[in-house]
Amino acid sequence: MIQVDQKLMREELISFIEEQKKKKGPLMPVMQKAQELFGALTIDVQELIASELDIPMSDVYGVATFYSQFSLEPKGEHIVSVCMGTACYVKNIEKIMDKLVDVLGVEPGETTPDNKFTLEPTRCLGCCGLAPVIMVDDQVYGRLAPSDVAGIIVGY
Amino acid sequence: MKTLQEIEQIRAKTLKEIDVRSGKQGVRIVVGMATCGIAAGAKPVLAAFEEEIGKRSLSNVTVTQTGCIGVCRLEPMVEITAPGKDKVTYVNMKPDMVKKIVAEHVVNGNLVKEYTIGYFENNN
Amino acid sequence: MDIYRSHVLVCGGTSCNAAGSPKIFEKLNVEIKKAGLEKEVKVVKTGCFGLCEAGPIVIVYPEGSFYSKVADKDVQEIVSEHLKHSRIVDRLLFKDADANIITSLDDIGFYKMQERIALRNCGIIDPEKIDEYIAFDGYKALGQCLTQLKPQQILDVIKDSGLRGRGGGGFPTGLKWQFAKDEDSAQKYVICNADEGDPGAFMDRSVLEGDPHAVLEAMAISGYAIGADMGYIYVRAEYPIAVQRLEIAIEQAKEYGLLGKNIFDTGFDFDLEIRLGAGAFVCGEEMALISSIEGFRGEPKPKPPFPAQKGLFNKPTIINNVETLANIPQIVLNGAEWFSSMGTETSKGTKVFALGGKIVNTGLLEIPMGTTLREIIYDIGGGIPDGKQFKAAQTGGPSGGCIPDEHLDTPIDYDSLLSIGSMMGSGGLIVMDEDNCMVDVARFFLDFTVDESCGKCPPCRIGTKRMLEILERIVAGQGVQGDIEKLERLGKNISISSLCGLGKSAPNPVMSTLKYFRDEYEAHINGKKCPAGHCKALLNYIINDKCIGCGACKQVCPTDAISGDKKEAHLINQNDCIKCGACMDKCKFAAIDKK
Q1: On chain B, which terminus has fewer CB atoms closer than 10 Å, C or N?
Q2: In A8-149, where do the E strands start and end?
Q3: Does the pLDDT of residue A72 top 70, yes or no?
């Protein structure tokens, strides 16, 4: 089953690349698509991109490691993003982060052993009015106190 | 879309639709459209205002509706506000009174005394 | 077209979205239908109203009633009371700092002092309807440009207006356009820089979410002015709503023939494409942004050649920030003189600020250049909450500096901010109070820069890292004599020797705090004390004689560091204490001090 999915996803990526090749500067959109399809840019995905776009693998790897949204390893089922923007910093986001580290049992940047959560410090989410803010997948939680954290995580 | 006129047409059309949001500028005609107002016949009054304003294509005049103005026995009621002037309340409105109010009050700025709340209260 | 007697505007900005506005929107529609009012009342989702603190925000017109912090359960009341019976729900109305209830939008202090040009349509129109943008004079400027003006005439208007780039640097926009126009090339490009990376700034997102067509129109105008037929919008992937609204806007504009081939039958072609960022702050720098669109690592290049000469795909290119572009159609419509009548001698027009941190009204505001910080913080922002003392205002994000009380009366413009050691940046304005430690604030920004440095040039890559190490030592209580001088020397050298703006400005947060809050650095280094009571390593939690022995603190202490019998004064064992502060948060008797 998983192998079939892989094959389908590879085919989808290849046809997307064909489409993008007509435009100038296709690498970034292609890599974003690949990350979305596969969840991570593993070495064989990068090799596929390099050969389809006919560019050196080093270029692909260089881009994959430059941008923080590209990941070489798969992430957990849910991404817990902790806003590290100035407004959140001023309103003590560290306390929320400490609590998350405590509740999830992993350090920032790590994934829980059951692959359920990845804890990620992130750049300003732009909801400074709600600081301090965290985001689980696409859902934003604002005006948080450390005591709110456990309840949010339990909901997933 | 090929000309500025076409843009202007959309602008005029849409502006009419959303004018209610432009706030306090210009003349505002507010018709009380709560249950009692409607029961007393406010709907045709509102329609008459819209028609009259549309016919004269008056800019800067908003016809809008509101709920209960508060004095049910005087319904249908209409309130007209203009910049820098006190609000005027017309009462016991009927569609055939609309033309005069638009011509006198809205266009020329003269009160139609005999339709106002004060006149009505003193003479009935 | 239907005429509605009432319009209900629901804020769909990210902040209100996060606070639950999509649910409110949905519920309003359901309840309105239930009440049979769907033909009389229209519910509209708009862009950011700018008063994020009070979200989710709902405004009911024609009254202009401004409801704040609307909850799910309030919706029914708004429908049954306000929409059905025209009784305004006082309980939900926004209250200003003096707790006066305010019924109309225009009467709120927050809005009174504002002058909205870039934000003029935000919170007014439905951003997903091109007709509503057109209703407020949208695409009229483009039409006029194409049918009545020569490219050079447009350039002259923009130059005469005095508009300067709103993204940070403040370069004169008209001049930038002129450079690109003067290049002889068959292919040119325009780029909208929507890679809003400054932490604490969200005006570009709000413009894109609330008024996307203004940006498209301005890009088409700039394309015509410099001779480009292709544009790119480089937008942060972290802004999904903005991206979605842009996609809708582009589609609608194409449908109307306002983008694409032969616009206004003048033979002018212009097409747009959206490119997503991937989380690199340095891509806000124009050369790095160009590299990123081309499909490379987002690394800056030495200038010259400038983008106007050799930019995207080596063709002449202009790059403008979102807010800059949002001003363009208004300048074309109202004239250079109108625009330059606002602002100060060197900085014309208005500026949008994102007000955040320790302030009562967090949110978005647009004010004429030359307004003072004091007016922004106290008159518009409503001052500092909880009776605390103002300490500093941070502008310009990681490239800016901290402004102390003594400079609050400085009229804000590009040059005055530079002269007091900060910069305009993109307009993030974070207010800090007595509880914020200025040394740690500097450390926070350096931490950001070190993380985001692209690594290409050594002064930035290595220099900022060394500065961060020194700062980390100081906040950990291990600062030594000579650290301050070392920071100053490093900062100066990094500023003059880095390749791009990121490195050149990276020392600013340290330099400005050293200038105005040197005593805090000295207290950390010499006295091993944090005057703000923020740096964990330098403070102790101590129970004072107000303790009644309730035991609440003992229960929340994660390390069992608190001992004491019931009804007896408790004691914190300093060796076990991890300084989490849980006891202090829990104590109802103010019996725990942080020293």
Answers
A1: C
A2: 78-83, 117-122, 134-136, 139-141
A3: yes
Give yes or no for residue C177 having a pLDDT over 80. Answer: yes
Rounded Cα distance between B79 and B89, Å, is: 4
| C575 to chain A, closest Cα gap in Å | 20
Contact B18 C125 (CB under 8 A): yes
Segment C570-582 mean pLDDT: 87
In this complex, whether C and B touch, counting 3 or more CB pairs under 8 angstroms, is yes
Domains of chain C with bracketed CATH: 6-108 (3.40.30.10), 130-340 (3.40.50.11540), 350-433 (3.10.20.600), 438-525 (1.20.1440.230), 540-594 (3.30.70.20)
pLDDT at A3: 60
Give how far C428 is from chain B: nearest CA, Å.
Answer: 30
What ranges in C422-530 are assigned the alpha helix state H?
438-452, 458, 464-475, 483-497, 501-505, 508-516, 518-525
C9 neighbourhood in chain B, CB within 8 Å: 21
What is the per-residue pLDDT for C153?
97
CA distances C177 to C154, C191, C317, C455, Å, are 10, 12, 9, 31
> How many angstroms separate the CA of residue C131 from the nearest CA in chain B?
6
Domain ranges in chain B are 25-123
Q: Where are the alpha helices (DSSP H) in C382-463?
A: 414-419, 438-452, 458
Q: Could you give phi then psi for residue C543, rounded to 5 degrees?
A: -85, 130
A67 CB neighbours in chain C (<8 A) are 277-280, 298
User: What is the spatial distance between Cα C78 and Cα B86, in angstroms, rounded to a whole number?
Assistant: 29
Residue B29: phi and psi, rounded to 5, are: -110, 115
Note the helical H segments in A54-121: 57-66, 86-90, 93-104
CA-based R_g, chain B, Å: 16
The whole-number pLDDT of residue A1 equals 43
Comparing alpha-carbon positions, the chain C residue that sits nearest to B50 is C3
Nearest neighbour of B10 by CB, restricted to C61, C105, C131: C131
Among B19-28, B111-120, C180-189, the minimum mean pLDDT is found in B19-28
pLDDT in tens, C236-264: 887 877 898 899 999 999 999 999 999 99
pTM score: 0.80
Residue with tokens 């005057």: C531
Q: Is the pLDDT of residue B35 over 60?
A: no
Least CB–CB distance from C53: residue in A68, A69, A129: A129
Q: How far is CA C523 from CA C393, C426, C515, C517, C526, in A?
A: 21, 33, 15, 10, 5
pLDDT recorded at residue B1? 74
CB of A152 less than 8 A from some CB of C: no
CATH superfamily, with its number, for domain A78-154: Glutaredoxin (3.40.30.10)
A141/C428 touch (CB, cutoff 8 Å), yes or no: no
- The answer, yes or no, to whether residue B19 has pLDDT greater than 80, is no
- How many helices (DSSP H) and strands (DSSP E) are in chain C? 26, 18
Does domain B25-123 fall into CATH 3.40.30.10?
Answer: yes
Query: Closest partner residue to A85 among C200, C431, C582, by Cβ?
Result: C200
- Number of CB atoms found within 10 A of residue C483's CB: 17
